[in-house]
Structures are given as C-alpha cells and as structure tokens.
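Hey, I'm writing a tutorial for new members on how sequence and structure tokens pair up, and I'd like a real worked example in the thread rather than a made-up one. If someone can provide the structure for the chain below, I'll link this post from the tutorial.
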Amino acid sequence: MSSLRNAISRRAHKERAQPSQANKYTQENLMLMKTQDIGYILQKLQSERKKIEKITAVLHSVDNHPSNRHIYYVEDREEARELQSQASKSRVTPHSGDIPDLIKRKTAASYRELEARKSVNDPG
C-alpha cells in the first residue's frame, strides 16, 4: 500500500504567510503589559522572601531545640521531690551524634538553599 502512495505524485507543501506582527499593540497596551510584568516580578520576589522567612524560622527551631517542659501540680514538697527525681532519671538530652544523618543532610541542604535564595534576592 505504501508503494502505491509513493507512486502518486503529490503537490508540494507551501506554508501560508504569517500575519504581520508590526504595530500589533498600541503604546498603551505595551505600557500595560510592562507594568503587569513588573507586578508579576514583584509578586514572585515577595513569594521568595516569604519562603526565605519560612525556611529561616524552621532552621531556627531546629537549632534551638525547644524544651519540652511539663507542669505537674502536687500537694506537698515530698511529692514534688519524688516527681523531680523521676523526671531527672528519665530525662535524656540528645547529643549531635544522636541526630540521624538524613536530618543533618536535610538541615545542611536547607541552609544552602537559604543562602542561595538570599544571594539571589540581595545581590548587594
């Protein structure tokens, strides 16, 4: 079947002329598009700054290990001492060696991303 298709001569393909692009927009339209472009860029800049703030806040909370304190109400000093001794026995403070490598890598990557975003937004 394909040999029959190739045997029949077909006319050559011609591209249609493209409509003229000259003076497609008025001066007002061009100014409007420029201001919209500037608005879009400013919106993206603000979005990036919010991302930087969010990453910074997360990293600060990772670095400043929040203390998990519980408040216990007791009747007398004897009971308070007993609770304190139990709490001090069960309390374990994490060392930097106890933090899994995955979390360390993610934290380092977040710091690198933060620095990259800051250098892009503040070129001075």
